[in-house]
Amino acid sequence: MAISPTSSRPLSPLSGRRIFVVEDEYFLADDIGRACRALGADVAGPVGDLDDALRILHDGSILDAAVLDVNIRSQMIFPVARELKARNVPFIFTTGYDKVTISPEFHDVPILEKPIDLPAMGQKLAALIADLHC
Prior knowledge:
- By secondary structure, this protein is an alpha/beta fold.
- The chain starts with 17 loop residues before the first strand and ends with a helix.
- The chain has helices at 26-38, 50-57, 78-86, 118-132, and strands spanning 18-22, 42-47, 65-69, 71-72, 75-76, 91-95, 111-113.
- Strand 1, helix 1 and strand 2 form a beta-alpha-beta unit.
- Helix 2 (50-57) packs parallel to helix 3.
- The strands form two sheets. The chain has a five-stranded parallel beta sheet with strand order 2-1-3-6-7, with helices on both faces.
- The chain has one domain: Rossmann fold (3-Layer(aba) Sandwich), CATH 3.40.50.2300.
- Residues 1-9 have low confidence and may be disordered.
């Protein structure tokens, strides 16, 4: 009896999920996008500008989770974070800054310090999505 090679393969942790990436450092944005795709995700972005991020937020598409750089071209990402929170979309902040720079309303949001541990980021995103759908 032959077994299909795809039948026993476990789903990737982010399979079928759409992850929104906002990061203004080109190479890091590319690395985050690649890491998410390697885990089965579709990536919205990456974008490195607050206006582009807001445009994606308002394009009507579904977002399952997000990775947000706290400081995008000298602008804080909080308007995007507030809207994601209002929509109940889980997200992670990335930063090279101290946690003190995070607005108190977001102290419950996981923070990954740069340089980012990409495997840990993927696990954290998968856990946030799983927690939301329990």
